[in-house]
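User: quick one, sequence for these tokens?
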């Protein structure tokens, strides 16, 4: 891998909302009457962030590392997916600089959960919570997100080459 001083990556993910599932975002269970549907815990925030890291490294997306047709990935905690991305980052000679995340959800209100999500992600990323930005926005009641059929997330992440 070329020894760029910085590498930047972007990730996007969306999962459908459904009854009978827990809502997990950034590794935190957010109280809500519905949860996200997926083979894993369907944590779209963590998936977008992991894809941003894989993308920054020029690697394939999370579906390559954790295929959704493999039974061993059933109910997988997405924090493990993020940990794999961090492992790839470190073995390529980089550490995570900062990450900026946006959650698109009509409901529930995310503000009460932002700090605990930052704390959760910071542990897996091995950085301080202050190196993570998390914004949440509704979709102004428009489209599938506005109709509460889905929650989506965007992530941008900067990787910094470790001093050797
Ligand atoms: Zn996903």
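Assistant:
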């Amino acid at each position: 891998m070329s020894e760029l001083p910085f590498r930047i990556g972007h990730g996007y993910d969306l999962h459908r909302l459904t009854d009978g599932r827990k809502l997990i975002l950034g590794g935190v269970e957010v109280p809500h009457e519905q949860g996200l549907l997926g083979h894993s815990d369907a944590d779209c925030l963590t998936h977008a962030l992991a894809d941003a890291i894989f993308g920054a490294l020029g690697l394939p997306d999370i579906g390559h590392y954790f295929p959704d047709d493999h039974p061993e990935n059933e109910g997988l905690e997405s924090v493990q997916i993020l940990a794999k991305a961090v492992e790839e980052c470190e073995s390529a000679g980089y550490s995570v600089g900062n990450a900026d995340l946006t959650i698109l959800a009509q409901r529930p209100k995310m503000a009460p959960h932002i700090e605990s999500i930052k704390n959760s992600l910071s542990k897996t990323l091995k950085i301080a919570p202050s190196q993570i930005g998390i914004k949440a926005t509704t979709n102004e009641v428009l489209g599938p997100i506005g109709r509460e059929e889905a929650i989506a997330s965007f992530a941008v992440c900067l990787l910094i080459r470790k001093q050797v």
